[in-house]
Amino acid sequence: MRRTVAGPGRTGELLDGLELGRSRLVTVEGGPGCGRSTVLDRMVASARERERLGTALVRCGREEAVFGWGVVRQLLDALPDPADPSRAPHQLALRDKNWFEAVREGDPWETLQRLYWLIAERAAERPLVLAFDDVHWCDAQSLRFLGHLVRRLHQLPVLLAVAVDPAEWSGTDQLLADVVNATQRLRWLPAALDRAEVGALGRQFLDDDGDAVVDACLDVTVGVPGLVVEVLRTVSRATAGETHAEAVRRCAPSAVATAALSRAARHGADAAQGLRALSVFRTPVPARQAARFLNLGAAEAVDTLALLERLNYLSVGPDGVLIAPEVLRRAVRQRLSPSERHRAESLAAGVLAGRPEALNEAAGHLLAVLPEGDSGHAEILQASGRRMLAAGRYPDAARLLNRALEEPPADGHRAEVLADLGLAELYRNPLSAVGRLRLAVAGAISPEERLLWILRLAHGLAITGQAAEAHRVLWAELEQTPLRSSHELIRRASAELFFLALSDDDIARTWNQAVGESDWEGVQRQKEPRQKAPRLPARAVRLSRASRALAGAFACHTSGELVDGIHDALSSGPEPTDESSMGWLAIGSILLWADDLAAAERVFGRAAEEAERWNAPLPQYTALWLSALASVNAGRLDEARTLTATAVGLARERPWDVWRAGPSIVAMRLAEELGSESAPAFGPFADEPGGDFPRLWVADLALAGRGRLRVVEGDVSGGLADLLEAGRRLTAIGCLNPAMSAWRSAAALALARLGRADEARPLAEEEVRLARAWGAPRALAVALRRRGVLRGGDQGLSDVAESLSLLADGRFPLESARTLLAQGRLYRSRRSHDPARDALTEAYRLAGQCGADRLLGQVREELLAVGGRPRVSRQGGSPPLAPSEWRVARLAANGATNQEIAGHLYLARRTVEAHLTSVYRKLGIRGRSQLPETLRQFEDDTTDTGNDDPTQGGTEILAGPPR
User: Fold this and answer.
1) Nearest to 379 by CA among 396, 365, 400
2) Residue 838 pLDDT > 80, yes or no?
3) Which of 419, 826, 846, 861 could cysteine-pair with 440, CB 3.0–4.6 Å?
4) In whole angstroms, what separates CA 803 from the centre of its chain?
5) For residue 325, is the peptide bond before it cis, meaning its omega torsion is within 30 degrees of 0?
6) pLDDT tens per residue across span 492-524
7) Helices (H), 281-374
């Protein structure tokens, strides 16, 4: 019966049995490098630690297989000396120069018997451990003796261990079969070493089995026994001055490469050369291509691959072959000379380039070598660079395309490479991108290429704060291009011109004067085409529609018609990966100004996710702060704070100075509601004089926001100056819409506080008129509330009542709270305390629900003035969550993922993440796992108190007599 175990874990048990006189045959089977020799070494080392046992270790070699009796002679030399020194030595053990000749001339049977009795004599003195390594290379005469010994092993106290590579013998060699296929053998199959086994080898070689050494060995060898031994053997000879773990990591590559190349060389030059050549491949390559790569005949290449696989140096899988493990691949590759590495990498690129799926791998090989002036290499690098661009991997694309320029490309392709490289660098190194794109434009061949690359150039110029230059370049091209006006690129360029106007107030002012409010497409040329225009993607049409819609929003056209047009433009989804413009984000802004918050947040959320996936940081940054602005409008201040912080972090150390005003708008809105100490940093525009703000409409909105904040914090004159300067700028570029900035009514309130009521009223009246023309409820509610505050009396209460009716759907809780506060103050001024308390109670509840601390303090003061005693509580045990937060928390507690919640509630994934962050903070828990139990407690409390809606508690007002 043959017994098989997974590994040599029973050495101690076998040695114990041997000391009691029990014999055993152990065969250690496996390919090269699997640890056969290590197993025998450890077995013999363990036996030598026992005084009652004798040992002999013999290693067979390929070169010695032709010498008869060579292994037996090694055995006799290795046998322990007799226990009695006075005893005459056995004649076969004598080291005589005529020994081989005497053995060959003797009777074979008699020789075998004499050898057997010699072993029996020594075993009778003390049990023996006889170990034979690589017995598949043993000479025939010695194999015959081993077979003779195996058949009589049961008579002797001998543990016979033989290591064999099954691939090195066919199974028809009867002499070897008599040894390794004997009955009652114990078969060991060495596997990767575990921590305990590596620790034992560490003690053997280094007298160190600490965790650091074991971890280092496992990291660099993945437990392959042969590699572990080679590394530790090398480290044991290393110089001092470093820890053993450091020495392992330093010596591993050299030790592994030396061992592998040496072992491969023993099998022939083709094996060693094949190992060196194939080490340059980093991913599996089909066996057919690997065979071609070796530059051998078909049969020789197949034999070499089979040999490397048998040596355990080649991993064979469904995807192809690869030198493995990785430590071996890296170590051998490092042994290549520069010229050898260069030839191998170039040849590998040529072999792989024929497979489309291996194009990126081929380009990776070319990155590792110097340019050769091969335009074919440049084509491979450019094609791979374009794939990286399509996948949004811009840094990788830039490396490949830079290398393609160094090759260099053929003259007809250089401009294409420059244009692709400009796109790759656009968001990360825009100054360099602008230079690349200028050169590309100069080398463009077709009108389509030229206009497309000028669009990219214009975008790069805008990012670097050169919007006027971008506008000039694009306008000049539109004046001379032969493309017809209906061409998609012309429409797209026209849309881009409008978005560039939004990037610079001086340009916008020129447009506003030169182009009619309803004729933003007047810049398109009306000339017959000189050639048929190919059809391009429909995104250009959507951008053109978006530009017209944005122009209408600036001019305060009716919001309903514009929103319908935007939804039509979005019918096939936003295009967050559009390479030449972030203008599509403007359509989300219009939805925000038109109070279609759900649609706006979907646009911004999808845009941020897609931009992150495609590695486009500037669109992602813009989408994030616009999402934060939508969250402020919806009263979700914690979420807005999280999104703003994310956007600011993304913009840190990027060359976007002119675009940094965006998060400042949100930060100042938050400071109005929370107080400056609780709001995010305002960014680089917080302390600049109004006249020094960038000439950019986003910066104009930030300037107006700073003006409001200054008024709130007591600097009425400074705030008024900012508001009027922002209004002057916005009006000059044709931006009249109070939904974008209600600067008029804010300035009117500041003027009234300074005693200039006559100047205030016209501004308030104009804002109401414009807000009615726009038709969105929030802007009109704000305008009416502020006019009502200015009017006072019955007219004021009428304005405030109309404002509240516009906010009755509850979508804007902060504006509702402010309007209720204004109503409460108006009632108090008439000494109508009961309706004042009712209004202020509701205002207090809404402000508390939103977490608007500054507003909450203002309402509290008014409540106290009319006899209310406000305090925040959780009625019925309800959680202090906003309705949207409660919905997200319930779904998360039930096991839904963030993506599933986003799909169920029609939210962006980042919005869900921001909600959950706020929920954890408000509930005082650390994460998702604590949600079910925490919410269950609230639900139980709610049931006990009869409150059916857990989102409605939060504020309690105890009425008292008026003061």
Assistant:
1) 400
2) yes
3) 419
4) 47
5) yes
6) 777 677 666 655 556 655 655 544 443 434 444
7) 287-293, 298-310, 326-335, 338-353, 359-367
